[in-house]
Design brief:
The complex is a heterodimer. Chain A contains 22 helices and 24 strands. By secondary structure, chain A is α+β, with helices and mostly antiparallel strands. Chain A has four domains: about 70 residues; about 230 residues, no CATH class; about 230 residues, 4-Layer Sandwich (Phosphatase 2c, domain 1), CATH 3.60.40; about 80 residues. In chain A, strand 19 and strand 20 form a beta hairpin. Chain A is elongated and about 110 Å long. By secondary structure, chain B is α/β, with parallel strands linked by helices. Chain B has a single domain, classed as STAS domain (Transcription Regulator spoIIAA), CATH 3.30.750. Chain B is about 40% helix and about 30% strand. In chain B, helix 1 packs parallel to helix 2. Classes of the chains: A alpha+beta, B alpha/beta.
Amino acid sequence: MSASARSRRATTPLPAAAAAVTVALILLALAVALPASADITGGRSHPSHVPQPTLVAPQAPAAPAPAYARTPAFHLPPAHAPVKTITAGRGPAGTPAPPVHTQPHHSGTATTPLPAGGQAPAAAAPGSSQAASSPNAQSGPQPSGGVASGKLIISPGRARIKHDRPKAQGRPLDTPRAPVQVTQDIQGGGAGLSVSPSSAPVAPAAPVSPAAAQAADSAAQAAPSDSTEAPSISAAAPAGPAGSRSQARSRPSARRAPGANAGRSGAHRDRASATASTASGAGTAVAARVGRVQARTRSATLAGTRHAKAAGAPGESPLVRTVTRIIGVVPLTVRIALGCLMALALALAASSRLSSARARRLERQRGELLEDVGLLQQALLPAPPPRIGPVLTSAAYRPASGPAAGGDFYDLFALADGRIAVIVGDVSGHGRGALSHTALLRFTLRAYLEAGLSPRNSLQRAAPVLERQLGGSLATVVLAVYHPRERTLTYSCAGHPPPLVIGHGAVTPVTACSAPPIGASLPTGTRQTTVSIPGGCVACFYTDGLVEARVGGELFGAARLSRSLAALAQDRGADDLLDRVAQEADRRPDDMAACLLRIDGEQRAPVVLVEEIELDRAELRRDRLERFLLATGMSVVEAEEVVRSAGASVARNGAVLLELHLRQGPPEIRIQPQNLSILEPSLRVSALT
Amino acid sequence: MMRGDGAFGITHEALDGSGVMVHVQGELDLASAPSLKWALTDLLQTGVQRMVLDLSRVSFIDSTALSVLVGVQRALPQEGRIAIAAATAEVCNILELTGLDATFEMLPSVEDALSWVRGSAAAAG
């Protein structure tokens, strides 16, 4: 039991570990949720959330270089260079659109100042669209990472913007320069303009309002040779007579996709050819989105589409990109916390596994210890000689397969006069504690037998001594002495089943008024039986583990044990009997011990059966003698006469011993006064009251 | 020799005076002996003097359970005693073999046990 309790304790870390893992998972979910919500702002701030400067187009159209190109407000941290694509009409909502003030200038040329901040947000947000379509002709296209300037040349059939290499003074950023070439076809009244800077991974065509086109025109003229660092400029510039009308519709057109804008403005299908050089460090999700925009733009050239796909990391699922973004914005402290939680979860899982392994090991060790108790018990039990005179002797012990191992004991030895003494008993309680009791009982009882006392007297005198040392335990025992010459067996039981005798003429002993076990605070050793066991008979002393074994839900029982004993071959002993019982039984909840006396010699009818009973006043009052006499087959009249005679003797002497000789003719009853002075004083008092 | 039907169970009811009737069901063996011990020990705490064990539904009792009964009998007050009522033939045989039928008051039926408790209570009164 204690081992199972230990195993329960050992497995307690399991739920604790599970709880810890659950807490870790909850914290993990919270940690993921927090950065995800922060991504609404934080995600934009990184990498694209940069101060977006307000760019004001130069008032003087003839300025050699745009003022914004030299304004200090436009200086960008180099770290924000990677996002370079701006698409008019698209972008995340909520991003404040940098007001880009352009001034109508030359109808065919516009310079679109592009603030930094890279990611198309400003152009895509509704606010930005409104800003772009304001009467001030604020242009929607937003640059990223630098200043874009271009030269837009509009011819009746074709408009072309050429970005020249930027001049030194026009480069506020020290990012690598790359040539940008924007080609736009303008047919009819509407035109789509797409400017793709060299560093932009994609070059979407983003038409803007006519005002924007004008602004772009003027800007382009103002700074025809300005540098284009990273931005992409997309502008839809309806030209010609549709200018005022397009301006009126600039608001919706600026919000829509470039292609739609181009179509709605009445312009012919425009085709933007953007050639972008290799993007340095590009490849963000923003670029991918812009790439999709461009893919939808029918004016985009095949080359531009290919660039967009290349920059959009083809093959990546949206989930992967989302996770990548989330991971990118998780603060370092949260990452550390997550790492710690993961480590904690792993440690707890490992601890739980170790604990369960330890519990299994303890359970196994408990089983081994119980087996050791059985083996130790077996080792403490003697190995009787195979033959004592005419008697083949054998003894065996099998510990129980469960927690009940230990408690049975036996002894089988030859007395000095050639008689054979047998002790078989069972101590209540099991395990290690029972081992000392079995040894105590065995050696104490053996000493009394070797001193020459009869089994009954040995029990009677040893019981008070033993009871004080049993500590409340009960012990059942049978003591027996076999007389080889007379072929008689005399035994006395204390709460123990009598021996089983099979063979020719075997008699059934009287079990009524059996003596109580040792330790029951009652006088024991009050009964003794002497039977003839001639040649060919077998006497079997056993413990209750044999008859209490289970066969198909039933007790094994004394009758089945008798059959098993009779079925044993002549040369088989107690070991074989226990093996047979163990084979037949489904379950053995208790130890099994057995001693066998197989008598050699000629078969002859048993001639002796003597039953003895010792009585005191209390037992006489409880009609104990009368029940015993009736059990021997005596008539009621005879029994009453015997009880009266015994009562008179008890009244004189305090106790009486009755011997009933039952085998030879009519029952012979001998009543002998018994002196109880040998009993312990306490037991004598209780016996006499 | 048949095993008791149903699971092991113990119920008890208070009787007149300081008596208690304990109904036991199932087998009284190594497995159920601890339950029997704790149940009877709890009853001892209530000052019970006469304890009747109704063993009419107990088919088997082993040495461990008998040891429990002997221990409880020993723990009863001086005038206290355990009576076993309506024990089956198997249980009676076991009690006779172990010689403990003289230790307990063996009563053939529950009614006899009730009258035994009443009589003892009257004698005590």
